[in-house]
Amino acid sequence: MRATLVEVAPRDGFQPIGPFIPTEEKVAFVEDAHAAGLRRIEIGSFVNPKAVPQLRDTGEVLRRTARLDGLDAQVLVPNARGVALALEAGARHLAYVVSASEAHNRSNVRRDVAASVRDYGEIVAGLPAGVKVRLNLATSFDCPFDGRVEEDLVLSRLDGLLAHREDVEVGLCDTTGRADPNHVFSLVLKCLARFEGRTRWAFHGHDTYGLGLANVAAAWRAGIAVFDAAFGGLGGCPFAPGATGNVATEDVAWMFRRMGVATGVGLEALVAVAARAAALPGAAPGGRVRAALAGICAAS
């Protein structure tokens, strides 16, 4: 058994931090995460720098980390302009985001869902050969404005999106962290059954209410094997009021190790990276494993 961890702290984790993290420091975090065994890393996003000033140097981070052996550098793109900038910078793995919830899509990308879906169709039709696509469906479980998102709406959104292209990876995103394991298990089962063999799946969870790790376990038991996580438990969507950090990568790695599931991640090296990230000025860290392992080391 093997699970793939996608490290998203350099994007989702850094974006809400106010004090600008120097480019050299961002590159060092990517390098150290790679050295800890993480091979898929979301290094930033090509969004309007006025909206997310922390990530205005994503192109430079992408360029400086391109030499890392086996690194699959993923970047988030919200629209056609972002795609053009990402491709110009040399990106070969794009994560496009659209919300299941109408209200969140308008808050996040300033347009309705139908416009985002049309934009997505035009984008994937024009991509160069060899460019991989992650389709992140934000608010797959809950919307900060409308509450619980019905499973039928999620399936309907995916019907429209996957009609444009099926050979993508779909990320089911618990944007607010208000999902529960039963909801995650149920929706994942329905998605895998409805789109069987047509696409690949990932789970993106937040730990706002302390259920992030339980939701990862539920998604795993339902059949998903790719999980987004952020070292140090950093993160939080600026356009989802109240949402806090992503589930901590070190917590996910520790859980899977205990379950006998391989991840290829060196936990001790990862915890060192997470501790540095948690200490960043302006960061709001989460997770439990860092403190637990530090306590064990202090007691021994």
Automatic annotation (TrEMBL):
It comes from Craurococcus roseus. Keywords: Lyase, Metal-binding. PANTHER family: HYDROXYMETHYLGLUTARYL-COA LYASE. The keyword Lyase applies. Gene3D superfamilies: Aldolase class I (3.20.20.70). This is Hydroxymethylglutaryl-CoA lyase. GO terms for molecular function: lyase activity. CDD domains: DRE_TIM_HMGL (cd07938). Coiled coil: none annotated. Residues 3-271 form the Pyruvate carboxyltransferase domain. Belongs to the HMG-CoA lyase family. It holds the Pfam family HMGL-like.
